[in-house]
């Protein structure tokens, strides 16, 4: 990868761990001015998140236990891009139905972001879903583990924004999504096509 004329070439790579969602690689990389450095990199399948806004301007939030931080977090409906070949928008539609039993008549791509690019390549696509309607859970889907313990709440978008600033919403995709949706509502920026990445 080149930036400002320097070629950050990967000189070597060792797979330390290879799992279904993440893998850990130890890369040796050429550095500016000569020399090399070792970087541990988590490769991730990627994810989607959905800001589902109803006709009253409420955003759908869910409270889910997250073991790595040992706490319940308020989040957006979201999920991994772990279904082979499934376009990200289809993943978002599936996750919205599975987690909160909703479908949307209108979709927009709000943001794409790297969750923690200092060590991980996970990219999250955050969609805006509007014109919501109730749907049953997809056939064959069973809520289990942490998903069986979800709390779902509809919150006015302005209140969700305040929760971000109060520290009540700390999941990065939810922070990004809630703030982006509020700005989109306030300023009407041009959004990318829904199939952009």
Would you mind describing this structure in some detail?
The chain is α+β, with helices and mostly antiparallel strands and 197 residues long. It is 20% helix and 43% strand. The protein has three helices and twelve strands. A four-stranded mixed sheet has the order 9-6-11-10, sandwiched between helices. A three-stranded antiparallel sheet has the order 3-4-5, with no helix packed on it. Helix 2 packs across helix 3. 23% of the residues are buried. The model has no long low-confidence stretch (mean pLDDT 91).
The topology string of helices and strands comes to EEEEEEEEEHEEEHH
| Helix vs. strand class | alpha+beta
Shape: globular
For this structure, the quaternary state is: single chain
Q: Keyphrases for this structure?
A:
4-stranded mixed beta sheet, alpha+beta, 197 residues, 12 strands, globular, 3-stranded antiparallel beta sheet, 3 helices
Question: How would you summarize this macromolecular structure in one to three sentences?
Answer:
The protein is α+β, with helices and mostly antiparallel strands. Helix content is 20%, strand content 43%.
């Amino acid at each position: 990868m080149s930036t400002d004329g320097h070629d950050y070439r990967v000189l070597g790579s060792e797979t330390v761990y290879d799992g279904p969602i993440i893998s850990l690689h130890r890369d040796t990389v050429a550095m500016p001015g000569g020399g090399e450095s070792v970087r541990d990199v988590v490769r991730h399948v990627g994810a989607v998140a959905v800001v589902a806004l109803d006709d009253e301007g409420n955003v759908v939030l869910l409270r889910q236990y997250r073991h790595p931080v040992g706490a319940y977090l308020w989040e957006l409906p979201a999920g991994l891009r772990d279904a082979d070949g499934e376009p990200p928008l289809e993943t978002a539609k599936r996750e919205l139905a599975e987690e909160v039993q909703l479908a949307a008549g209108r979709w927009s791509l709000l943001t794409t972001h790297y969750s923690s690019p200092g060590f991980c390549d996970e990219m999250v696509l955050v969609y805006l879903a509007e014109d919501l309607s109730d749907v049953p859970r997809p056939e064959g889907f069973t809520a289990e583990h942490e998903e069986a313990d979800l709390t779902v709440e509809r919150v006015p978008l302005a209140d969700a924004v305040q929760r971000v600033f109060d520290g009540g919403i700390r999941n990065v995709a939810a922070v990004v999504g809630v703030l982006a949706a509020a700005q989109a509502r306030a300023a009407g920026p041009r959004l990318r096509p829904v199939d952009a990445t």
